[in-house]
Amino acid sequence: MVNGEEVIAGVDLTMYFGDGNSNTLSLSPTQTAIVIKILGLSLETYTGDMVCYSDETLKQMLKLKGNPLRLREVN
User: Could you tell me the residue ranges of all domains in the chain?
Assistant: First the structure.
């Protein structure tokens, strides 16, 4: 713990493909922080469950005029 908060030691992002293959990428601390912020990830204190923004909330963010990432909706 640092300043009473859990420290994330590392994050791996795994992509699973339709052909059964997968590929994993280890994220840097900066990449991890950005992914957590964009998805609104948080850990529920009492249950230990991880939650994040819903698909609908993320789609609404894409429509914001000031969308800094210039993201577009993907089908």
Answer: 11-62
